[in-house]
C-alpha cells in the first residue's frame, strides 16, 4: 500500500501559522474577558462584604478558615527572677559610626539624634573633624570613637556593666541620674553639648481648640484635654525614650507639683493614661506615626521637629526639662583619657561646631527654661515603677499572641520566636489574661485565653516549646481568629484593655487577604503589635499602623531584649 506524502507549500505554511495566531488571540481575548469579569465580581463581593457590620465580617472570614484546637501540655517553668539586662545583645549589634585610630582613643555612647545619618549626624561630623586635627598628648596621637545608641539602651549597658564606654552623651540628664541610682558610675563633664527641647506636637486645629477652651496651648491644657477625651494623644515608652521619660515625670509633676510619687500624682496620671491609645516603642516610631495624621498630639524633640517637613502641620508645645545632651565620664578614666575627653568637650563647644549644631537643628528655643521637678535618680526609678504598675489604669489586659509557624519560619526564626516568647513571658503580669494562636496553612488555638497565673503560664510555655514550622502562610487567618478571641473575651470583661501580638516573618501566601481583614482590624480598634523575624517589615508595619501600634524588626541578634522590653512596657 502506498503512503501519501503531503508537502506544504510556503503559502500553506503561512496560512497555518496565521491560523494558530488567530486561535491564540481568541483565547487571550476570552481569558481577558473572563479575568475582567472575575475582577468585577471580586470587587462587587468586596463591596458587599464592606457593607456588613463587624460581627458579620468576622463570621464571613472565619467560615473560610480551618480552625484546630490543641490540648496543651504543662511545661516546667522557671520562677527565678531575671533581669532585662541579662538579654542585652552583644555591643557589636550597634557598630561604631566613627572609629578612631589614635594611640589614645576614647569611645563615646551618643544618642541617635546626633550620631545618626543626615541631619541627625552632628557629633559624627564633629568627631571626624576632631580626629583629623592631628592632636596629641606627649607625642601620642589621640582620637574619639562614637557609637550610635539610644539613651535608655546605653544606660542599660552601663548599669549592667556589660559594655562600658569611656563617655556617655544621652539626650537628657535623666539617664545619668538613673545610672547612678542603680549602681552605675557616671560623672558629669558638661551639662550641655548642644541644646534641644522636648515638646508635644499638636495639629493646628487642636491648638486652636486648646487656646479657646483653656486660654493657651501648653502642657496643662494638653493633659486636661486628653483627660476629657477632647484630643487623641500618643507618647513614647519611658523605659527606652528620653522624651517619653521626661513626659512621664512632667505628667506626674502637673498632677502634684509637691510630690511626683504621691497618690494624687498617681491618680492624675492614671486619669490621663486611661485616654491614651498609643505608647510608641521609640521616638523614631512616633515620627512615623505622625505621617498617618491619626493623632492630635504626640511627643517629639525640637531638633526632629524642625528637620522633618512632614511635621510642619503640627505646632510645637515645649514641656519638662531641657534635652541639652550632657556629656558624662563613665567610671574613672586614666589621666590621658580624661585629657582627651576634656579636649573633645571643648572642641564640641567651640563657635564653629556650635554653628554647625544650629545647622543640624539644635540650639533652638534657647529661652526655654526647665520645669522645676525632682530629677534625682531615685525619684526617676520610682516613677518608672509607678508607670509600669499604673499605665493601664487598673484595667486588666487581655492579649493574644499569634505565632507564625509556616515553613518559611523554619530554623533560626522559629527558634528565636520560641525563646523570645518564653523569656518575655516573665514580664507579663499575672493578673493579665493571655491566649496563644499559631498558624501555617490553617489556624490552631494552642492555648485559650485565661488568667496568666502559674497554671496558665505552664500551659503557655508547653505550647510554645512544641511549636513546629511547616506548611503555608495564612497570616490574616491567624490575625482574624486572634481578634475574634479577643472580642469574645472583652464581652465578658468590657473594661479590659485588649491587644494582639503578631510574631511573623511578614509573608502571606494563603487564606484571607488584607483587603478583607483590614476593615476588621480597624473596626475592632485592637492594636496589633508586630514582631518581625528576618521579616518583610513593611508588611508588618502596615498591620501595626492600622490602629497605631508598634512594629519591631527583631533580627536574631537582639530579638530577646527587644521583646522583653516591649512586654515590660505593654504587659
TrEMBL record:
Pfam family, one: VWA
TM region positions: 12-34
PROSITE patterns, per database record: VWFA
Keyword tags: Membrane, Transmembrane, Transmembrane helix
CDD domains from the UniProt entry: vWFA
Domain VWFA: 398-571
Protein name in the entry: VWA domain-containing protein
Originating species: Mobilitalea sibirica
Amino acid at each position: 500500500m502506498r503512503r501519501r506524502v503531503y508537502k506544504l507549500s510556503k503559502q500553506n505554511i503561512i496560512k497555518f501559522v496565521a491560523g494558530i495566531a488567530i486561535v491564540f488571540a481568541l483565547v487571550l481575548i476570552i481569558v481577558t474577558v473572563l479575568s475582567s469579569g472575575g475582577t468585577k465580581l471580586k470587587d462587587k463581593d468586596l463591596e458587599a462584604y464592606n457593607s456588613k457590620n463587624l460581627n458579620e465580617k468576622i463570621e464571613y472570614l472565619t467560615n473560610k478558615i480551618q480552625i484546630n484546637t490543641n490540648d496543651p501540655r504543662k511545661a516546667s517553668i522557671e520562677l527565678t527572677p531575671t533581669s532585662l539586662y541579662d538579654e542585652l545583645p552583644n555591643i557589636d549589634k550597634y557598630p561604631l559610626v566613627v572609629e578612631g585610630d589614635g594611640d589614645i582613643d576614647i569611645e563615646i555612647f551618643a544618642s541617635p539624634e546626633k550620631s545618626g545619618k543626615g541631619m541627625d549626624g552632628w557629633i559624627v561630623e564633629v568627631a571626624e573633624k576632631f580626629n583629623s586635627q592631628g592632636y596629641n598628648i606627649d607625642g601620642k596621637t589621640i582620637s574619639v570613637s562614637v557609637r550610635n545608641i539610644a539613651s535608655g539602651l546605653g544606660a542599660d549597658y552601663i548599669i549592667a556593666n556589660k559594655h562600658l564606654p569611656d563617655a556617655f552623651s544621652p539626650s537628657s540628664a535623666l539617664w545619668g541620674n538613673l545610672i547612678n541610682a542603680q549602681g552605675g558610675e557616671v560623672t558629669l563633664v558638661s551639662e550641655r553639648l548642644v541644646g534641644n527641647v522636648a515638646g508635644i506636637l499638636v495639629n493646628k486645629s487642636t491648638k486652636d481648640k486648646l487656646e479657646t477652651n483653656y486660654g493657651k496651648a501648653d502642657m496643662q491644657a494638653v493633659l486636661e484635654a486628653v483627660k476629657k477625651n477632647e484630643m487623641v494623644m500618643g507618647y513614647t515608652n519611658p523605659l527606652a525614650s528620653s522624651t517619653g521619660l521626661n513626659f512621664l515625670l512632667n505628667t506626674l509633676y502637673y498632677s502634684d507639683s509637691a510630690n511626683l510619687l504621691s497618690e494624687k500624682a498617681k491618680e492624675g496620671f492614671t486619669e490621663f493614661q486611661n485616654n491614651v491609645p498609643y505608647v510608641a516603642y521609640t521616638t523614631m516610631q512616633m515620627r512615623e506615626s505622625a505621617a498617618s495624621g491619626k493623632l492630635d498630639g504626640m511627643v517629639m524633640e525640637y531638633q526632629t521637629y524642625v528637620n522633618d517637613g512632614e511635621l510642619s502641620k503640627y505646632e510645637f508645645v515645649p514641656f519638662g526639662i531641657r534635652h541639652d545632651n550632657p556629656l558624662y565620664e563613665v567610671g574613672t578614666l586614666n589621666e590621658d583619657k580624661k585629657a582627651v575627653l576634656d579636649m573633645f568637650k571643648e572642641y564640641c563647644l567651640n563657635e564653629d561646631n556650635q554653628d554647625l549644631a544650629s545647622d543640624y537643628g539644635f540650639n533652638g528655643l534657647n529661652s526655654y527654661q526647665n520645669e522645676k521637678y525632682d530629677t534625682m535618680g531615685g525619684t526617676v526609678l520610682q516613677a518608672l515603677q509607678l508607670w509600669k504598675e499604673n499605665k493601664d489604669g487598673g484595667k486588666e489586659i487581655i492579649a493574644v499572641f499569634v505565632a507564625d509557624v509556616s515553613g518559611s519560619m523554619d530554623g533560626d526564626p522559629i527558634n528565636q520566636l520560641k525563646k523570645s516568647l518564653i523569656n518575655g513571658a516573665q514580664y507579663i503580669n499575672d493578673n493579665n489574661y493571655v491566649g496563644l494562636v499559631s498558624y501555617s496553612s490553617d489556624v490552631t488555638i494552642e492555648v485559650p485565653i485565661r488568667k496568666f497565673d502559674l497554671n496558665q503560664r505552664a500551659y503557655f510555655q508547653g505550647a510554645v516549646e512544641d511549636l513546629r514550622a511547616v506548611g503555608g502562610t495564612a497570616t490574616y487567618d491567624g490575625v482574624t481568629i486572634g481578634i475574634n478571641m479577643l472580642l469574645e473575651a472583652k464581652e465578658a470583661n468590657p473594661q479590659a484593655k485588649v491587644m494582639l501580638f503578631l510574631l511573623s516573618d511578614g509573608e502571606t501566601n494563603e487564606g484571607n487577604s488584607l483587603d478583607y481583614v483590614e476593615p476588621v482590624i480597624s473596626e475592632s480598634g485592637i492594636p496589633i503589635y508586630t514582631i518581625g523575624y528576618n521579616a518583610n517589615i513593611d508588611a508588618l508595619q502596615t498591620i501595626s499602623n492600622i490602629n497605631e501600634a508598634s512594629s519591631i524588626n527583631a533580627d536574631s541578634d537582639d530579638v530577646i531584649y527587644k521583646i522583653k522590653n516591649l512586654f515590660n512596657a505593654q504587659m
